[in-house]
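User: I'm putting together notes for a lab meeting next week and I want to include a structural view of one of the chains we've been expressing. I don't have a solved structure, so I'd like a prediction I can at least talk through. The sequence is below, exactly as it appears in our construct file.
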Amino acid sequence: MQHGDSTLWISEEAIQGWIPASSGKRGAQREFSDHAIETALALRLVFKLPLRQAEGFLRSILSLIGVDLESPDHTTLSRRSQHLDVDLRHAVEDRPIASFTADAAYDTIGIYDVAGASDAKVIVPPRKTAIRSRRPRARDRTVRRVMEVGRRQWKKKSWYHQQARVENTFSRYKSIIGDRLCARHSGSQEAEALIACNILNRILKLGGPESFAIEVTNWGGRVDFRAAVGFLY
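Assistant: Thanks for the context. Below is the predicted structure for the 233-residue chain, given as structure tokens.
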């Protein structure tokens, strides 16, 4: 095992798209494509580099692979990041929020009122000292249900544990990217967050298994996985 060894994949498409095509408009043309800027900013996030060091790091990579391309300088990276259009694939379509899930710190009347205005279901465990209010409220249904079936069973039936997936994602973000933004301007911060999400998605795709549904045959109470295994080879 070679500790600290890093391998970078740079596709031919990335090299070909490093320099943008001419826009045909008057004035100075951009020297670097959005893809080149995004690549430099991604390296900055992964290796936790200031912009100046990211510039030099990318320059050395381009030199090592023997391509006649320049690295965007740090001022260009700072300026272009404020208006960079980062393409991030959405996991779901944009649509009204159906439910709001959070821990007991969000067990407040205000949360229920805001969620109720959007017809969103609140999945928040009530505090252990919670009691029913004098006036009927949506929160009372949760308090009553927890009293009836118990806190553990309520969490299971309400799918509260789905929150763990979100917490795991935030944990991955903080451990790989960091717990704070590097950019100072709001536009650059938005681009940085989107690039970071793309990085996490790429890591998950490269390191995770390709899962898919398989058909399992049951012979007299015994499960035969041979047909299923055939799909894996």
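A couple of points you could mention at the meeting. Confidence is low (pLDDT under 50) at residues 225-233. The two ends are 28 Å apart (CA to CA).

User: Perfect, that's what I needed.
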